[in-house]
Amino acid sequence: xxxxxxxxxxxxxxxxxxxxxxxxxxxxxxxxxxxxxxxxxxxxxxxxxxxxxxxxxxxxxxxxxxxxxxxxxxxxxxxxxxxxxxxxxxxxxxxxxxxxxxxxxxxxxxxxxxxxxxxxxxxxxxxxxxxxxxxxxxxxxxxxxxxxxxxxxxxxxxxxxxxxxxxxxxxxxxxxxxxxxxxxxxxxxxxxxxxxxxxxxxxxxxxxxxxxxxxxxxxxxxxxxxxxxxxxxxxxxxxxxxxxxxxxxxxxxxxxxxxxxxxxxxxxxxxxxxxxxxxxxxxxxxxxxxxxxxxxxxxxxxxxxxxxxxxxxxxxxxxxxxxxxxxxxxxxxxxxxxxxxx
Length: 342
What we know:
By secondary structure, the protein is of the alpha+beta class. Strands 5, 6, 7, 8 and 10 form a 5-stranded antiparallel beta sheet that branches. Strands 9, 11, 12, 13 and 14 form a 5-stranded mixed beta sheet that branches. The protein is globular, with a radius of gyration of 25 Å. Helix content is 19%, strand content 40%. The termini are far apart. It has a domain at 20-68. The chain has 3 helices and 14 strands.
């Protein structure tokens, strides 16, 4: 009888351990949520930072738990948690609102270590004030261009994965930004921010487009720019020349006939795919073109980035027609105002 009881206890031990682990993860998630709410409600700057430090400690403790990468964190709002499809990357980001339209950005990455099949915890340090021109820089975690990320897109080139992040960034009383960032990883779990994964031509908003490593859209704090990853149908006009006939006749001889044969024929190409879609930013007048405080979204001009041939290719001024993805059972409502709030 004793042996049978012992056998049952040994059989149940893994289930008891899993139950304890789930309870601990639940408690940690609830504590993260509670401290985040207190952080945004408190008026004292030092107290806000204290709550933020507590969030960092709780997130670090959460990551250290077994199978935490599989635990659902979608219910968190003020602390945004994004996980890649392959579960090689999970990133936690939050914003500390310091008052007077000043923000401090915090982040922690849970990164997969392929060499020993474990995870490492990487703290991110906001280096924004030291990065006057961040578009063409590859950055280490301790020199991070801080942002509150709300979307993660996993892509692949050969055997290498890329993780594209969409984020919001409050800048000042008069300016805010949307950011398209790329994370790359190594087998030992090390990460880097910024990669030349973009093919952008003829877009005057960005300079040195051949080497751009991240896209930063800065515009008026009074505006509301749409930037998200959607399933879209876009129509692209293409001009193709008519093929010459192999048969030669009298009607084909002469300049006039040749000109008629080479006359472009307009065609429309239809593309249906998931892509990054955004409002075009334009200055309120030509006189303020050098001041991003006066840039506003033109909701009637839509641009897109589609991942093709191992890069995000830029499609300007598209005819976007948002349709339901036939592979999705439900279509999520798009969140336009991505300023951190509960």
